[in-house]
Amino acid sequence: MAEKYSDVPKEVGKICSELTYGTWRKQSGWSPLTVDIAEGTRFTDSSGKEYLDFSSQLMCSNLGHGNKKIRDAIYEQLTKFEYVQPGYATKIRAEVALLLKEILPRSLTKYFFGSSGTEANEAAIKTVRMFFHKERKTKIISNYNSYHGSTAGSISLTGDFRRIPVDTYYSVSGIVHSIPPYCYRCPLKLKFPECNLACADYNEYLIRNEGNIGGMIVEPVTGTNGVIVPPDGYLQRIREITKENDVLLIADEVMSGWGRTGKWFAVENWNVQPDVLTTAKGITGAYLPLSLVATSKKVSDYFEDNYFAHGHTYEAHPVSLAAAKAAIEEYKEKNLIARSSELGKELGRRLEELKEKHKSVGDVRSIGLFGAVELVKNREKKTPFNVYEEKLEGKTLTTDRVSKKAMEKGVYINNWLNHFVIAPPLVISEEELSRGLDTLDECLKISDDEVA
Ligand SMILES: Cc1ncc(COP(=O)(O)O)c(C=O)c1O
User: Fold this and answer.
1) Which of 6, 85, 344, 420 could form a disulfide with 368 if both were Cys (CB 3.0 to 4.6 A apart)?
2) Which residues contact 174 (CB under 8 A, 6 or more apart)?
3) C-beta 160 within 6 A of ligand 1
4) Which candidate, 444, 442, 426, places its Cα nearest to that of 56?
């Protein structure tokens, strides 16, 4: 860790919590950790205490902190010009587009840049609706147990409880929720493979009976809601159904992209070619805000002769694109996609061990360096420790207590309702991976003690 270079005044945390909003929470009781400096897989708070970043902050700092090449690339672009309006061409925009063409699924050939995953999904909704404007096929299917963003359209796509406080008066119409491929808690109470992928097939029923469905959005591996890896065949079946019914398939790879699952993009794990792919987070390794909507030729051809009624001031921001170019080069040079797949095997093995050992662990799931540990109060009944209403009330959850203990031991592990999302920077060493998992192992004693 580099030397501490700034003295953070003590009142910083207090000022931030009093004068700025903490996201996704009741505001009272927010006493944020003040971060002073971050480097590699570590960050340090204002007291000088160091933490291993076991979740890449919000599953986005994939390349670790303080990467010199990305910092220099940002600076270099700034020395030329910081911004020109998106109607102009820039060298950096062309360079990033060419790199994307190399690494994205081959179906995706034209790109729109935004600033966040939320914006990308908002743009994806509009893209589908503009594309099927004449046919009036404006409805979009999205799964429960998903997260797609916080604005009107993207929170409407969202299938988890974050949609509920703003439902009805804020959401956009025409979003139809469907059954997620969540085998541990199958909503249909079936078991894979005997289920024959009934959750996937249900979408055919939905498309036929609902009418006017133009799109279906899926997280190829569901992120925040528990790293739900679909059973083999699910995404392929969804692709078949959407193709047969002339429905555009949108892969939301905001979290699952950029090597997280051991492939550049998660859809590659099942050889699925979507019509639209949205992503953000790891595209710049979180060095600057940037998102992407990548579309197939079928979609982009439509807009050759039809008005593309969308845009932002900061679309294709040159400095963010400079960060993306350097980030993509870093993923390649450091061979991080293969590394995620390789280290992922060890992560998977260790997670299975945790499940064996801890009675509060109901299920573990992982793919690449993307893992979840789901806690239960009762293994047989799969009773969750907490329900979402408690999260909305601001109650301290069992996973909060475990994560807090891990922080005390110097490891940051992101927790959400009843699970932890383990998503370390792809540059993590084997020793660090092991240390993070050892810490989680020790801290799970807290949830074991709370088992009914
Ligand atoms: C799958 C998915 N989609 C969309 C979003 C929203 O992205 P952002 O927070 O950059 O707006 C997220 C954020 O976590 C996400 O995980």
Assistant:
1) 344
2) 138, 139, 140, 212
3) no
4) 426
Q: Does some domain include residue 295?
A: yes
Token pair in block for residue 213? 């469905």
* Closest residue CA from atom 9 of ligand 1: 117
21/84 Cα distance (integer angstroms) = 31
| CA dihedral (74, 78, 83, 86) positive or negative | negative
Alpha-helical regions (H) of 81-177: 91-103, 117-131, 152-157
Q: Using one digit for the tens of pLDDT, what is the confidence trace for 317-343?
A: 999 999 999 999 999 999 999 999 999
Q: How far apart (Å, rounded) are the C-alpha atoms in residues 34 and 42?
A: 14
Q: Give the start-end residues of each E strand in 227-286.
A: 248-252, 276-279
Ligand 1 atom nearest to 253, measured from its CA: 1
Both 32 and 113 in a single domain? no
Protein residue closest via CA to atom 16 of ligand 1 = 255
Q: Is 2 within a domain?
A: no
Decide: 147 in ligand 1 pocket, CB within 6 A. yes
Domain match, 350 and 273 both: no
For residue 222, pLDDT beyond 80: yes
What distance in Å separates the CA atoms of residue 74 and residue 433, rounded to the nearest whole number? 30
Which residue has 């979408």 as its token pair? 203
pTM over 0.85: yes
Domain limits at 168?
69-333
